[in-house]
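Ligand: S-adenosylmethionine. Inputs:
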Amino acid sequence: MSDVTEITACRAADGAIRLHIGCGTRILPGWVNIDAVPRPGTGAVRMDLAALPYGDGTVDTILAEHVLEHLDFSEESRVWPELARVLRPGGVLTLEVPDFTWVCATFLAARDEWREFYRVGHPDHYAGCGRDLRQRWGILQTMFFGNQNGSGQYHRSAYTEGKLRALAEELGFAAIRVGTVFNKGGQALRAELIR
Ligand SMILES: C[S@@+](CC[C@H](N)C(=O)[O-])C[C@H]1O[C@@H](n2cnc3c(N)ncnc32)[C@H](O)[C@@H]1O
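Predicted complex:
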């Protein structure tokens, strides 16, 4: 893992600064790929998302797919303003998070048939239910609590379209677009916030 000091000047060939936060194993060329978990040999770096080493309005774009729900309430209150601070006017924050309203509705409509304990390290970490959305205690419970199959793989907060719109307004974003996609076994909100 590179040290943060090595990458603060990291930009793409076109001079843009693109931050990919919570990249996991998905390394994007031309982006500063950031993750809390060391991933040796990938070029990914570790940064405090609440204290990014970038000046105000210096970052062109930020991609945050399935990571913001991993922040606890305190981190959430510090990271969101930090993302807004570093983005340049017109810069875009693209994010994807589980659609908590959909998760709740799908959970309530699903069968309440507990099958087996979660087994740490087991390839099917869906407690014997696979990705069956008709079962409450399979993949649906991981949309509430995270996969819990490694460091950082816990969900600590949740998002609805209303919350995303309120955050955009609170932080002074100029515009927001919110849609839904089906990804990682469930419905997610995908939003673009324009600084
Ligand atoms: C569910 S994975 C998503 C990975 C990738 N974005 C994707 O969509 O496939 C969440 C990732 O966020 C990372 N993560 C969690 N908390 C983080 C934090 N505070 N700073 C940076 N990365 C974090 C985890 O280590 C994990 O790799």
